[in-house]
Write a structure and sequence with these properties.
GO terms for molecular function: metal ion binding; oxidoreductase activity. The protein is mostly helical. It has eleven helices and six strands. It has a single domain, classed as di-copper center containing domain from catechol oxidase (Orthogonal Bundle), CATH 1.10.1280. It has a two-stranded antiparallel ribbon. A two-stranded antiparallel sheet has the order 2-3. α3 crosses α5 and α7 packs antiparallel against α10. It is globular, with a radius of gyration of 18 Å. It starts with 5 loop residues before the first helix and ends in an 8-residue tail after the last helix.
C-alpha cells in the first residue's frame, strides 16, 4: 500500500528488533479489510504487490528509505520566494502543505490531495535520491497499546528515531491551544530527539499552530510560518492518543460503519466539539511535539 496520511509523510517509518519486549497489538480487523481491498485492486489492475509496511520491511529496505529521506533533506530547496525559509527539497514539501492547509483539511479534497502529495513525495525520493522502494505506511493499530516500545520508535539506525527528551509541559489542545475542545495529555517526551537517524534534523518552517508552548518552540519570523526558523525536531509520543483512537477497532469501525464518503472523512478527521479526536488527528498526536503536533507544518 502506498497511501498514508499527512503525519506519515514525515513520520512514515520502519521497524526492527529491540531489546525491550514488545508485542504488536491485534490488527485482524483492518488486516481483513486490507486483504479484501488488495484483492479488489489486483483484480482491477491484474498486477499488485503493494505490501510495503513498517512491519514487513527488511532492515536493508528501511535503511534505503531513511537514506533517501536524508538525501532529500540535503538537496537545495526550489521554492524560492514562495517559501523563503525552505532550505531543502524536504522543506519544499512542508511549505506546500503549509500553503494549502486550510483548503485541504475539512474539505472534500482531503483524501485526494494527500494521496497526490504522498505520491509526489515518493517520486522525489525515487527520481532525486535513487530510492527503489515505495513510501511505507504505519499500521497504527499494531503499536496502539505500547507505542513507546514499538520498533519504529526504538531510536536505532533503522527506526524513525525515538521519543524526544522529557520536558515538562501541559499537553496540547485540539484543534488548538486557544480552543481546546480536546486536551491531549503530556507524554514522556516533548524535547529534542536524541537518538536515531533524525536526531540531528533541523526543522525550518513553522510553527503556525504549535502544540507545544512558546517557551519551547520559537515563533516564526513570518506570520504565515514560511520564514526561516531553524530548531530541533521535537517529539512527544502519546500513549493516550494511541490507546484511545488508534487501536485496530477504531480504523475498522471507521471503514465499516461509514459507507458514505462525506461521513467517512468527517469522522476520520475528527469531530472535536463532540470530543472525537479521530484516527487522522490521533495519528498526528501519536508523534506530537514540534512540528508533528502542528496541523500546518506537521510533515516537517
Amino acid at each position: 500500500m502506498r497511501f498514508t496520511t499527512t503525519a506519515v509523510a514525515a513520520a512514515a517509518a520502519s521497524c526492527t528488533s529491540t531489546a525491550i519486549a514488545y508485542t504488536p497489538a491485534d490488527t485482524s480487523g483492518t488486516d481483513q479489510l486490507a486483504a479484501q481491498g488488495l484483492a479488489n485492486l489486483k483484480a482491477y489492475e491484474k498486477t499488485a504487490n503493494f505490501t510495503c509496511s513498517t512491519e514487513t520491511a527488511h532492515r536493508r529496505e528501511k535503511k534505503e528509505y531513511i537514506d533517501a529521506v536524508l538525501c532529500l533533506q540535503s538537496k537545495p530547496a526550489i521554492s524560492g520566494a514562495l517559501a523563503p525559509g525552505a532550505k531543502s527539497r524536504y522543506d519544499d514539501f512542508v511549505a506546500t502543505h503549509i500553503n494549502q492547509t486550510l483548503t485541504i483539511h475539512g474539505t472534500a479534497n482531503f483524501l485526494t490531495w494527500h494521496r497526490y502529495f504522498v505520491q509526489t513525495y515518493e517520486t522525489a525520493l525515487r527520481n532525486e535520491c535513487s530510492y527503489t522502494g515505495y513510501q511505507p505506511y504505519l499500521n497504527w493499530g499494531q503499536l496502539a497499546l505500547d507505542p513507546l516500545n514499538a520498533p519504529v520508535f526504538s531510536g536505532d539506525s533503522t527506526s524513525m528515531s525515538g521519543n524526544g527528551a522529557y520536558v515538562n509541559h501541559s499537553g496540547a489542545g485540539v484543534p488548538s491551544n486557544e480552543t481546546p475542545f480536546i486536551t491531549v495529555p503530556p507524554g514522556q517526551g516533548g524535547g529534542c530527539l536524541t537518538s536515531g537517524p533524525f536526531a540531528n534534523m533541523t526543522v525550518n518552517h513553522g510553527p503556525i499552530s504549535p502544540a507545544l508552548p512558546s517557551s519551547l518552540v520559537p515563533s516564526n519570523p513570518q506570520p504565515d510560518g514560511l520564514g526561516h526558523n531553524p530548531r530541533c525536531l521535537r517529539r512527544d509520543i502519546s500513549t493516550w492518543a494511541a490507546r484511545t483512537n488508534l487501536q485496530d477497532r477504531n480504523s475498522t469501525e471507521l471503514i465499516v460503519e461509514n459507507g458514505e464518503i462525506g461521513k467517512f472523512q468527517t469522522v476520520m478527521q475528527g469531530l472535536f466539539a463532540q470530543g472525537l479526536l479521530g484516527v487522522h488527528t490521533a495519528g498526528h498526536f501519536l508523534v506530537g511535539g514540534d512540528p508533528g503536533g502542528d496541523l500546518f507544518a506537521s510533515p516537517g
